Amino acid sequence: MKFFSGVLEPIDRVSEVLFGLIMVLTFTGALSVAEAGRDDVRAMLIGALGCNVAWGVIDAILYLMGSLADKGRGLMSFRGVRAGDLHTARLHLADALPPVVASILTPAELEMMRQRLMQLPEPPPRARLGKDDLLGALGVFLVVFLSTFPVVIPFLVMRNAGPALRVSNGIAIGMLFLTGWAFGRITGHHPWLVGLAMVVLGSLLVGLTMALGG
User: Fold this and answer.
1) How far from chain centre, in Å, is Cα 94?
2) How many CB atoms lie within 10 A of CB 93?
3) Domain containing residue 52
C-alpha cells in the first residue's frame, strides 16, 4: 500500500509481518482442539491480539528511537564536515556515504560535495523526529497488529475450534509463504524457494517459542 511503502522499507515490512505471524501462531498453536470451548477460544483471541498490540507499540517506539539515532548521526557528520579541517571533513563525508560509493569518489569529487554542504544553512542544534518518523512508527504498529487478523478470523466466524484451527493454520502457512516470496524478490533470491524456506523457518520459530514458554 502507498502509506506503508512511503514510510517503511520493503524488508522492514516483511520482517514486521513475519514477527506478527509468529506471535499470533504461538497462541493459536497452544490451543487444545480436543478440550477447547468458546471461553478458551475467546481467551486465545484476546491474548493473541493483546500481545500483538503490546509488541506493535514496542516496535513503534524502537522505530522512533532508531530514526532519532540515524538523524543524530547524520547531524554529527554534517557538523563534522562543516567544522573540521579539510582532511577531517573529507573523512566525515566518506563515512556518511555507502562504502561502495565512497570508494569510487575522487578527492576532487569529495571536495565538491564538501563545498556544497558548506553552502547549506546552519543545521539545527539537535536531531528531532518529524512527520515521516511518526508515520513510520504508525506503519510499524499497524503492520504488526493487522498481520494477526487473517489468522484469527476463522475463530471469529466458525463455532467449532477444530475446523477453525485447520483453516487458521492454512492461512498462516499461506502468509508465511507470501512473506518469504516477497523477501526472495527483495534480496534477489528465488521467490518460491525462499517462500518454502520461510514456511519451515516460521514453523520452527513458533515451535521454539512455544517450547520456551512464549
Assistant:
1) 28
2) 22
3) 2-211
Place of cell 499470533: 24
Q: Could you read off the pLDDT of 136-150 as tens digits, one per residue?
A: 888 888 888 887 788
Residues 178-182: contacts with CB within 8 Å, 24+ apart?
179/14, 179/17, 179/18, 179/21, 182/10, 182/14
Structurally, how many domains does the chain consist of? 1
pLDDT computed for residue 36 by the predictor:
56
Considering only CA atoms, which of 208, 155, 156, 151 is closest in space to residue 174? 151
CA-based angle 81:121:135, to the nearest 5? 95
What number of other Cβ atoms are within 10 A of residue 133's Cβ? Answer: 18
Check: CB of residue 62 under 8 Å from CB of residue 16. no
